[in-house]
């Protein structure tokens, strides 16, 4: 049985909850980790229409971008819209999980989905929001088991360096051990000092994958007592960034760029401010409400975000930027299909029998013409 906890772990691999901003609320909003899941609805917001759809589809879980419970809940008023949604979600035993700023920041998260939607290349983050330590795990394995241990650790996420995966370093040496009466050694005999060829396997791992990598290592290692060490590295570390910067495949005129946006962001109700440009190639973007990062976007030809105000456009002009307000909804609706694609890939990799249905409540979030 696939459980809510399995889906939570998959989401944690995509968007670790500790990436979230301090004011945010992410993770499991409602439900039990132990419940079984065979159908999931992915969405931008949890609205009455989304809850209706989940019930009709007999789904067990909703995965949303915007947190279902955001500010501290002080009461559950069953006459309010949110109270009624909570009541129905509980009655139908549905779990709700939200990945918000952690998904904005994560590699492969919402901002990368948006950059891909715009067809950008050479994508990098441009607003630093913190960094995570990288760890080095060393384990001592009998030679014949080294390959299996290296592979299991890599599959759990260890050894990723830039465009490379499964990176590790191994050196050959001698292991020594003497088991007591209770011991049951794979090599040698209890009570006798055994000397055997061993390989020290060293492999780096991000904090988010550390627990999974150690579990995978212990699960594959043939020894009763696994000898290993974990060291936190001073360098390198993994920088976390919000927003993305990249380049368009060709330089576009203002009109061409506008037509491109209208095509790839169909519900964006575009507004333009700042400096009108004739040649656009470098694009900075931040999904949702990213007007506070206009200064960081300086140097790009254009900055695309949502929820832009009058003075934001004024600042963009001073900085020499073309500013595009493509709407909060317009820049974030991609998350619905993006999350569904991610969960479908995860289900396939794990051989899970899971039905994943993206559902966007468009009516609630359009600005009407
Ligand atoms: Zn948002």
Written description of the protein model:
- Helices cover 31% and strands 31% of the residues.
- It contains 12 helices and 13 strands.
- The chain has helices at residues 4-14, 48-56, 81-91, 101-105, 110-117, 146-155, 207-220, 254-264, 310-319, 328-332, 334-350, 362-365, and strands spanning 27-30, 39-43, 61-64, 95-98, 121-142, 169-177, 194-206, 228-252, 271-274, 280-289, 302-306, 322-325, 355-358.
- Strands 6-7-5-8-10-11-12-9 form an 8-stranded mixed β-sheet. It has a 5-stranded mixed β-sheet with strand order 1-4-3-2-13.
- α6 packs antiparallel against α7.
- The longest helix has 17 residues, at 334-350.
- The protein is globular and about 80 Å long.
- The structure holds zinc ion.
- Residues 66, 288, 328, 332 line the site of zinc ion.
Spatially, the strands of the biggest sheet line up as: 6-7-5-8-10-11-12-9
Tell me roughly what share of residues is in helical segments. 25-40%
If you compute it from the alpha carbons, what radius of gyration comes out, rounded to the nearest whole angstrom? 25 Å
Count of strand segments: 13
Low-confidence stretches: none
Structural class, from secondary structure content? alpha/beta
Ligand inventory reads: zinc ion
What series of H and E elements makes up the topology? HEEHEHEHHEHEEHEHEEEHEHHEH
Largest sheet: 8 strands, mixed
Q: With helices defined by DSSP (H or I, 4 residues minimum), what is the helix count?
A: 12
Please report which band the strand proportion falls in: under 5%, 5-15%, 15-25%, 25-35%, 35-45% or over 45%.
Answer: 25-35%
- Overall body shape: globular
- Terminal-residue CA separation: 47 Å
Mean pLDDT: 95
């Amino acid at each position: 049985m696939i459980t809510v906890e399995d889906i939570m772990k998959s989401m944690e691999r995509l968007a670790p909850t500790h990436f979230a901003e301090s004011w945010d609320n992410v993770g499991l909003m409602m439900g039990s980790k132990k419940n079984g899941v065979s159908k999931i609805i992915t969405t931008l917001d949890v609205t009455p229409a989304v809850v209706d759809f989940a019930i009709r589809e007999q789904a067990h879980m909703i995965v949303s971008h915007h947190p279902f419970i955001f500010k501290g809940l002080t009461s559950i008023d069953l006459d309010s819209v949110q109270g009624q949604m909570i009541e129905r979600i509980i009655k139908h035993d549905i779990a709700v999980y939200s990945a918000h700023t952690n998904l904005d920041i994560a590699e492969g998260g919402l901002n990368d989905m948006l950059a891909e939607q715009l067809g950008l290349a050479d994508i990098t983050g441009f607003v630093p929001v913190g960094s995570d330590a990288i760890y080095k795990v060393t384990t001592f394995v009998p030679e014949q088991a080294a390959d299996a241990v290296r592979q299991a650790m890599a599959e759990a996420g260890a050894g990723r360096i830039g465009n490379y995966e499964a990176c590790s370093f191994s050196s050959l040496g001698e292991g020594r051990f003497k088991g007591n009466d209770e011991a049951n050694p794979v090599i040698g005999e209890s009570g006798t000092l055994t000397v055997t060829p061993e390989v020290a396997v060293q492999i780096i791992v991000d904090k988010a994958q550390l627990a999974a990598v150690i579990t995978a290592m212990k699960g594959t290692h043939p020894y009763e007592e696994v000898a290993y060490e974990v060291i936190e590295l001073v360098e390198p570390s993994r920088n976390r960034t919000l927003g993305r910067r990249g380049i368009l495949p060709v330089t576009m005129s203002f009109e061409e760029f506008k037509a491109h946006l209208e095509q790839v962001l169909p519900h964006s109700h575009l507004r333009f401010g700042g400096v009108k440009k004739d040649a656009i190639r470098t694009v900075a973007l931040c999904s949702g409400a990213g007007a506070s990062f206009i200064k960081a976007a300086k140097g790009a030809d254009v900055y695309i975000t949502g929820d832009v105000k009058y003075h934001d456009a004024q600042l963009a002009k001073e900085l020499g930027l073309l500013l595009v307000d493509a709407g909060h909804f317009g820049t974030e609706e991609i998350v619905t299909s993006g999350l569904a694609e991610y969960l479908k890939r995860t289900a396939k990799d794990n051989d899970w029998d899971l039905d994943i249905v993206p559902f966007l409540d468009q009516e609630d979030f359009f600005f009407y013409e």
